[in-house]
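Form P-L/3: holo structure prediction, ligand zinc ion.
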Amino acid sequence: MRFCKHLLVIGLSAALLSSCASSPTGRGQLVLKSDAALAAEGSKQFAMLRKQMPLSKDPATVEYVACVANAIVEVLEGKDAAMYWELAVIERADVNAFVMPGGKISVFTGILNVASNQHQLAAVLGHEVAHVTARHTNERASQQMVAGFGVDVAAILLGGGYANQTRGAQQGLSQAVALGVLNPFSRGQESEADIIGLEYMAMAGFDPRESVQLWQNMSDKNKTNIPEFMSTHPSGETRIEQLIAHTPKALTLYNEAKAQGKEPNCQR
Ligand SMILES: [Zn+2]
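OUTPUT (holo model):
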């Protein structure tokens, strides 16, 4: 309940306390923005990004990423499933992927050199989808509001927590950074996205054990050249330990999915 307590400390009106929600893993959340408004802003930014970024023109690559993304989105239920999910595959060497509210996923082709099979790509996409369904983007926007800033949607949305330009934009708001309020996705949010993402990939029929391998690959790559995906995410070792701890439950979900005939075969 850290953010809710924070609200009390800085003396905002008690009415805002009703905005303290709970994330899917039971973590206290501060959610002040309307999901619909944020989704609309996400859509707008996503349309702009698709115009400005070099989209992949290789149908095999686009179909491969879409195949994995579709399988993940298919396990969603309720309002998460009802979101208008969209995907952009961007032709760039950066090891990066990010999300915008309302279900807009962007994948840089560079991440396909690290996520070396469909299961590992599912680990990336499960993690990204979880940031949306767990309302992390809304939390981040809400934290900015608490910090006394208007919500700089471009800064929040475009970086998705990975890209350097986002950190640059946030450094401009140095006081808030000093307060620790304006970090990209927090460690708690990242852990949560890992855990939920692991379940999503398993429910879709991807092998959750490959998630650990993905982070090993990220660490190996890290020795020579820090992938953006890695640079703003918690240390590899901690997250690998956490993933291993959650693997038994994920394996049960994986076996159930297989028993239901869910065995995706996404290939490039
Ligand atoms: Zn993340």
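COMMENT: The beta strands are 20-22, 28-30, 86-90, 97-100, 104-108.
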